[in-house]
What we know:
By secondary structure, this protein is α/β, with parallel strands linked by helices. It is built from five helices and five strands; from the N terminus they run E-E-E-H-E-H-E-H-H-H. The longest helix is centred in the N-terminal third of the chain and has 21 residues, at about 45-65.
Amino acid sequence: MTVLMGLDLSARAAACMIVGTHWDGQFSRVATRTFGESLAKDATDLERARRCELIADQIVGFAQGLLVTEAWIEGYAFSRHDSAHTIGEVGGVVRLELVRAGIAIHTANMGTARKLLLGKCPRKGAKVAAAQALRAAGSPAWTLDESDAFVCANLGLSEHAGAFCFATTPPPPEPKKRKAKP
């Protein structure tokens, strides 16, 4: 059996969702944890590096405890200029440690992942819309980060034949219009 982990990484609240391909839409079979640590604005480089190491160790420990075989990690959102370098550092360390632990890693394109769930993504508020869709489907009251972590895992589930994943059925194509004959 394949066990997937969805990750929405950040330094203060890295959300992790673990779900097996056998979960059959039962949210009671989904495990969740959030790891992270706040630092003072004047934290040293050593403190920042140790935080990355701690987050990676916690995520890998959680993954190994539930026999995770692959991780689907949210692609970086570099539009946030205040934290772009920090998330890159955390993501790099987490990815390295997952690979060292023998866990396959994949980047989850969030536009694709949310479109799978929603059918069409709103230009604004896609993260909230995805969380609302999951809640309507019966998920627990997860945070937005936890919901995004699940959206990553859901994308991974869609890659496994026979695994239950949330997906919107695309509308049928419009019939081609025929030209009227004179």
